[in-house]
Amino acid sequence: MEAVFETPLKTLDVATALFAPLQKKLDELRENGLYRTFYEFSHISEHPGHTAHGGRVVQVWSGNDYFGLGQHPDLIKAQIESTQLHGTSSGGSRNIGGTSVSHAELEKRIAAWHGKDRALVFSSGYAANFETLSTLIAAIPDMVVFSDRNNHRSLIEGIARTGCAKHVFPHNDHEALDRMLAGYERERPKLIVFESVYSMDGDVAPLGAFFDLAEKHGALTFLDETHAIGLMGPTGAGLAEELNDHRATFVQGVFSKALGTLGGYVAGPDSAIDYVRSHAPGFIFSSTMPQAVLDATLTGLDIVQRGDDLRRGVMDNVIRLKNALRKAGLRFLDGGTHIVPVIVPGGERVHRVSRRLLDEFGIYVAPVTYPSVPKGTERFRVTIAPFRTPEQIEAFVSTLQLCLEQE
């Protein structure tokens, strides 16, 4: 017989009173078209770039699995075989039996990939950014941080967690950054934090200019390569490899985008990365990823490192997509990367168009609204895989055009 637990009436009354303001804020999100709707999908391994929703197959045009490796047979095989050997759990955190030989191998390969002394694997890119920044900044007395205005929330929160002195410079503005850095003596510890590719606008950082400023003012640099990994560079190591400029003190990346699995990492100087390994709470006190995930990641890394055809396929399709959007007269931001933001102003409007594309045409493209982007610049963040055909691209653009014109 199942036990029945009743919550005391007074407790319910207290909870209702405390949560009433939360419900009001949720209602305001709905009224302003900012409430986030999570659709339920089931990815289909036989059809990369497609997912099952409501009993039918739909095309996905806004995912982060840039190459479709999440459904690649080699990755699936590697993960299944490793699961059969090692099970479904890591068994604990890294320091109490959770470190596998695959952790060690992957960290060595990542460090070598970026030309750094050492790398450390985390359960997510968010954790990699937050834990590394919050731990290192707090460990260095009088550190002052300079952060790009468009940085990802994980970078912002990692910096804010320390309470350090900080400056936010206008997006990609190296002249403004130069002036801010000049306000401090060269001996003062300084850290410049920025991304290589910005996921909402699809633009890139002036990498060389930032590194030059770091050398000029005696600053360290933290480069988030999340959305460049796999897509840029001769072996997919990111924008730094693309430009052959490896002056970043720290490089962060993820496995959950182009590599098709899960997790993130940071690479950098040996002592600094070892300090994070030894002191970061979110690393020490969290169970690590199962070995099977890491074995699939190693397979994905093999594919990406020799994946010139994948990179060419993506960029060829990006060119086709942009040409089709121009021909249709649809507004988009051209940052020169694989991310194509199509601007659809209005929170309610972009949600309505997204819902119609899904319900009537079997196309899923996620609406992006405030606070992810400024109000009035709502958009569809369109990404396109190398396996998309010219016919699919034309059909996507014509359908999008139809839905927007009828709004």
From TrEMBL:
Pfam families: Aminotran_1_2
Domain called Aminotransferase class I/classII large: residue spans: 61-399
Biological processes annotated in GO: tetrapyrrole biosynthetic process
Keyword Acyltransferase among record annotations: yes
Cofactor(s) listed: pyridoxal 5'-phosphate
Enzyme Commission number(s) of this protein: 2.3.1.37
Gene Ontology MF terms in the entry: 5-aminolevulinate synthase activity; pyridoxal phosphate binding
Keywords: Acyltransferase, Transferase
Family annotation (InterPro entries): 4pyrrol_synth_NH2levulA_synth, Aminotransferase_I/II_large, AON_synthase_class-II, PyrdxlP-dep_Trfase, PyrdxlP-dep_Trfase_major, PyrdxlP-dep_Trfase_small
Matching CDD domains: KBL_like
UniProt-listed NCBIfam families: 5aminolev_synth
Family: Belongs to the class-II pyridoxal-phosphate-dependent aminotransferase family.
Protein name per its UniProtKB record: 5-aminolevulinate synthase
Organism of provenance: Lysobacter capsici AZ78
